[in-house]
Amino acid sequence: MAALHMLWMGLVLLGLLGFPQTQAEGENHDSVQPNFQQDKFLGRWYSAGLASNSSWFREKKTVLFMCKTVVAPSTDSGLNLTSTFLRKNQCETKIMVLQPSAVPGQYTYISPHWGSVHSVSVVETNYNEYALLFSRGTKGPGQDFRMTTLYSRTQTVKDKVKEKFTAFSKALGLTEEDIVFLPPPDKCIQE
């Protein structure tokens, strides 16, 4: 259970992961922002919304908080994500590396703990306000991961952006009860 919690926290830090559900025939979940410009995606983001149909996520979503993630280029043309978050009343920071794929806006994350591979796509962004991300992967037979994430440049998210995230998540088969908008904690992510 502790190992599962560590995997989840590592991916939630980014707000990037996807949990159970198999891809419906004909659905394309690997779409990315047209003409994705990685340099415009860099900088500070807040994980403002998450959606997943994982039972662990459903149990814990009421105690999760927003985290701050600084996205920087990595040496291999991928991304380094440095996330700061509140955990057990302590501020923690984790660094994750997303490897680039052949498609701009699509990356691969390899969990150091599980060795599992996750596809991470920036599906839509206007770069200066929000980004919608989709992640999926597997840990083993019957253990497919799916998650959508709402990144925001600010801690306050406009209702129209929340509505866009909700529609995006539902279009990927997630339900209203799978979606949570994360409140900012009282410490750790302030400037």
Question: Topology, please?
Answer:
Blueprint: H1 2-14, H2 38-41, E1 43-51, H3 55-60, E2 68-73, E3 79-87, E4 90-100, E5 106-110, E6 117-125, E7 130-138, E8 144-152, H4 159-171, E9 179-181
Antiparallel strand pairs: 1-2, 1-8, 1-9, 2-3, 3-4, 4-5, 5-6, 6-7, 7-8
Describe, in plain words, how this protein is organized in 3D.
The chain has helices spanning 2-14, 38-41, 55-60, 159-171; strands at 43-51, 68-73, 79-87, 90-100, 106-110, 117-125, 130-138, 144-152, 179-181. With 191 residues, it is α+β, with helices and mostly antiparallel strands. An eight-stranded antiparallel beta barrel has the order 1-2-3-4-5-6-7-8. The model is unreliable at 1-28 (pLDDT under 50). Monomer.
Key attributes of the depicted protein:
191 residues; transport; disordered N terminus; small molecule binding; eight-stranded antiparallel β-barrel; prostaglandin biosynthesis; glycoprotein; alpha+beta; fatty acid biosynthesis
Q: Could you estimate the helical fraction of the residues in percent? A: 10-25%
- Total strand segments: 9
Radius of gyration (Å) = 15 Å
The chain-level mean pLDDT equals 83
Distance between the termini: 33 Å
Strand content: 35-45%
Residue ranges: pLDDT <50 for 5 or more in a row? 1-28
User: What strand line-up does the widest sheet have?
Assistant: 1-2-3-4-5-6-7-8
**Element-level helix/strand string:** HHEHEEEEEEEHE
Structural class computed from helices and strand pairing:
alpha+beta
Note the total helix count: 4
Overall shape: globular
**Major β-sheet annotation:** 8 strands, antiparallel, barrel
Protein name: Prostaglandin-H2 D-isomerase
EC number: 5.3.99.2
Main location: cytoplasm
Subcellular location: Cytoplasm, Perinuclear region; Golgi apparatus; Nucleus membrane; Rough endoplasmic reticulum
